[in-house]
Specification:
Layout (H helix, E strand, L loop, with lengths): L9 H8 L2 H9 L6 H20 L2 H13 L2 H11 L3 H16 L9 H16 L3 H8 L8 H4 L6 H27 L7 H10 L2 H10 L12 H13 L19 H20 L3 H14 L2 H14 L8 H28 L6 H13 L13 H11 L2 E3 L15 E3 L2 H18 L19 H7 L2 H27 L4 H24 L13 H18 L3 H18 L8 H17 L1
Antiparallel strand pairs: 1-2
Length: 591
């Protein structure tokens, strides 16, 4: 749904009161593998999704409640997994996506139910297209091709050519189910998300397998990796209320317990992630998949789908460019996960993992291609690939007047890349690896070479990187100014300020850790002031959009950070302290 409907009309209300949800679910329970039954099943499940879209918020909530109570979730999960025919499987996933995305399904599910639904969605994504191809190729079941071609009489050979595309659309819908369970108006707590992962730790393995999904030739526009990477970042990336890298005492604000519980739950989730044997290697593979894709291959496959796989729609340039935005999403979300690992559980990362991550951090910290430098075809793809950020509202909020903080916010590669790399450098310094880089690459290191590792860890390259990273904090803060003063988007501006502060805080932590060497101090002059200015501005933006709790976190953090600098060469002016104490007082009064 692109917008929220005004509500049921007289007929829709009558249908709801007569029990349309229960009736349609009863129809969909029929598992007989004949043509008439399939049409009834498909129309019933599609009808529920369509009917949901007619309702306003209250009506959608009521419909979803009934859908859950009458066993709709379990029914759709079972059909998606094991129905005798492929189209009921496909439509069951579409129905789940409708209720998850437009119907507030997540708010009615327990930890166990959420975990089980995510697992079912992953298994659908990973099942592959062979079942669909075989069914479309069989004259006895080719009739199902009607739902892809919207006409009867399609030959088995043509139906089979189209089948993998049709299945791939279902893969995307399954990935959207997982995403919608996390990206919602009332975001789940980190404890809830951690418990979802703990309910069945296989979920992590399945999500990582989806993350390493290779773009299929028959559906090159697939958004599975982007949606999965965002979902993983919501499960493992932490909250944007806290600036990781800055210690803050929130007990006086009554938020200390909440802060600690959230922090402990996130640490637990990340440790569970690390406990699985293939997560790190799969994350590296997923990153390399993006690096190794060639835009020429994507383009060739994209425009060949109509002739090779009988695509039923004609694509425009905009749909093609969306692929590169999705790639940019994926990069940013993967970096968010690595960023959380390096600041929440650094001691749990092996030396091999740190050295493997160097390639990711370094490749995401290169010079960015600016929009005004686009001169040729490949330039626009390169720009979208490396400059996209996530500021995601749930589908259910589109077209409504609801005001709440975007539940999924991920800074672009140009900010998160340096954040990751400087944290890696700090940990390596603390382990004595900067002073003595490896002479031979350990067996457990992957995704990089000895030459690359030595280059990244050279003093000259670290110095160049630090200067680039510090400049990025200023650029990002100035992007916040533009978003607020010119674009009049205080919430989006606040996120720019927050992510600038997070990068600046990572640079401060590196500066503190390496202070005794004196090697890089000059590169990071005034970076503490960037923390104060950016986070103070983020607090002001949060106050402006009535997100007082976030403002209290930010303003309190700024005040405590600045107070610790008093009497040092980095001391900030009293005016900054006064201003941020005032912000904290305003936020405290509202909270």
């Amino acid at each position: 749904m692109s917008s929220m409907a005004s509500g049921f009309d007289y007929f829709s209300k009558a249908a709801y009161e007569a029990g349309i949800v229960k009736t349609f679910l009863e129809i969909a329970k029929d598992t007989r593998a004949n043509e008439d039954v399939v049409y009834n099943t498909v129309n019933a499940l599609n009808g529920l999704g369509t009917f949901l879209g007619l309702g306003n918020k209250v009506e959608r909530l009521a419909l979803t409640k009934q859908f859950v109570e009458y066993g709709g979730v379990r029914l759709c999960m079972e059909k998606a997994d094991s129905d005798a025919l492929c189209i009921p499987r496909h439509v069951a996933v579409i129905c789940l996506r409708a209720f998850a995305g437009d119907g507030y399904l997540a708010e009615f599910l327990s930890v166990d139910q959420t975990s089980e639904l995510m697992i079912a969605a992953c298994r659908y994504i990973l099942s592959g297209p062979s079942f669909f191809i075989d069914q479309m190729n069989d004259p006895e079941t080719t009739f199902q091709s009607f739902f892809g071609f919207n006409r009867h009489g399609v030959s088995p050979s043509d139906a089979a050519r189209y089948a993998p595309r049709y299945y791939a659309m279902g893969q995307e819908n399954a990935a959207r189910v997982i995403h919608a369970l996390l990206c919602r108006r009332n975001p789940p707590s980190q404890r809830f998300k951690t418990d979802v992962l703990k309910h069945d730790s296989e979920l992590i393995d399945l999500l990582m397998e989806c993350l390493s999904f290779v773009r299929p030739d028959w559906y090159p526009e697939s958004d599975v990796v982007s949606l999965t990477s965002e979902s993983l970042s919501m499960l493992l990336g932490g909250t944007i209320y806290v600036v990781n890298g800055i210690e803050v005492d929130l007990s006086a604000e009554g938020l200390g317990k909440e802060y600690q519980e959230d922090r402990e739950a996130l640490k637990e989730a990340l440790l569970l992630f690390l406990s699985r044997s293939t997560t790190i290697s799969t994350l590296i593979i997923a990153w390399l998949n993006l690096e190794q894709e060639k835009w020429q291959t994507i383009k060739r496959n994209f425009y060949a789908t109509k002739t090779k796989y009988l695509a039923q729609v004609s694509y425009e340039l905009e749909e093609f460019l969306d692929i590169f935005q999705h790639r940019g999403n994926s990069r940013a979300a993967m970096l968010r996960i690595v960023a959380a690992l390096t600041v929440i559980v650094p001691s749990e990362l092996s030396d091999d993992t740190l050295l493997s991550f160097l390639h990711i951090g370094s490749s995401a910290s290169q010079k960015l291609f600016p929009m005004n430098a686009i001169r040729q075809e490949s330039d626009q793809y390169d720009y979208l690939d490396h400059n996209f950020e996530v500021f995601r509202m749930p589908l259910s909020a589109q077209g409504t007047q609801e005001q709440f903080d975007a539940p999924n916010q991920i800074a672009p590669e140009g900010i998160l890349g340096p954040t990751v790399l400087v944290r890696l450098l700090k940990i390596l310094h603390q382990r004595g690896k900067l002073a003595a880089p490896p002479k031979k690459l350990p067996v457990g290191v992957s995704g990089t070479t000895l030459a690359e590792v030595k280059s990244i860890l050279s003093e000259d390259n670290i110095r160049r990187f630090l200067l680039l990273a510090k400049a990025r904090t200023t650029e990002r803060r100035e992007a916040g100014h533009t978003r607020y003063k010119k674009d009049r988007e205080p919430d989006f501006a606040g996120f720019a300020y927050y992510s600038a502060a997070e990068l600046a805080a990572a640079l401060v932590a590196f500066d503190d850790a390496t202070a005794e060497t004196g090697k890089w101090k000059a590169c990071l002059r005034d970076v503490r002031m960037e923390v104060v200015m950016s986070l103070g501005n983020a607090a002001e933006m949060a106050l402006g959009v009535r997100q007082e709790k976030k403002a209290l976190y930010y303003a309190t953090t700024v005040v405590q950070f600045a107070e610790k600098l008093a009497g040092t060469e980095y001391a900030v002016g009293d005016d900054y302290l006064v201003k941020n104490r005032r912000r904290a007082e305003r936020a405290r009064a509202a909270v």
